[in-house]
Amino acid sequence: MTETTHVVVATDRASKRKEEKRNRLLAAARKLFVNKGYHETRPQDIAREADVAHGTFYSHYTDKREIFMAFASGAQEDLHTFVHARIPKTDSFEEYIRHSLTAIQEFAEQNPGLLRSALVDTKVFDPTDSTSKEVRSRFAAGFISRLKDARLNGELYDDIDPELIGHAMMGLIQFSAPHAYRRGQSRQEYVNHLSRFLTRALVKSPKTLD
User: What is the spatial distance between Cα 166 and Cα 139, in angstroms, rounded to a whole number?
Assistant: First the structure.
């Protein structure tokens, strides 16, 4: 093996070790942010949970805010992918809402505490961040598109603003889904309650939801 090959192999190993430690730090941060919250989590806590030296944290992330941004962006992507894959083609706005809410609640059940982080506006932590806007807008786009179609089809009241209501629905889900989970409500109970609320508010002649 030549000297150059030795250098390449050593560099590759060092890169893999660095990536592995970064992933451990991010996994530890995810666990602590979900269980303890942002303000109660310290960089040294994350390093300890990841089983790395405190200084190692700062070789990967500038501060707690930066690792939270990475965590929140990952959670947002996970939520978008999970929900998008579980919404079939539907014939009505009511059916779309029910499928969407079912998928979101399923995500919340499988990832306790993660939903609020997935929908958080990371600009609260970093005003220059564009990731949150992109992911949140992409997630809201499904609601907005269906609201526009339903209004054109005569399902919704004519004075509904799809852009405003689409984003408002995200905020409603962000706080109601985790609350329902903590109260011990079943997925079906949550979906029924919120579906009734939204369809009665938006749909001209809502059907009775059992």
Answer: 9
Measured CA to CA in angstroms, residue 38 lies from 24, 29, 123, 159 at distances of: 18, 9, 14, 39
pTM of the model: 0.75
**Which one of 2.40.50.360, 3.30.1370.10, 3.40.50.920, 1.10.357.10 gives the CATH number of domain 71-205?**
1.10.357.10
Instruction: Give the pLDDT means over successive 10-residue stretches in the chain (210 positions).
Output: 54 80 94 90 95 93 90 86 89 89 89 80 66 64 90 92 92 83 87 92 66
Residue 97, Ramachandran bin (φ over 0: left; ψ between -120 and 50: alpha; else beta): alpha
pLDDT of residue 42: 95
Distance CA 66, CA 47 (A): 14
Nearest 5°: CA angle at 188, between 182 and 193? 80
CA-based Rg of the chain, rounded to a whole angstrom? 21
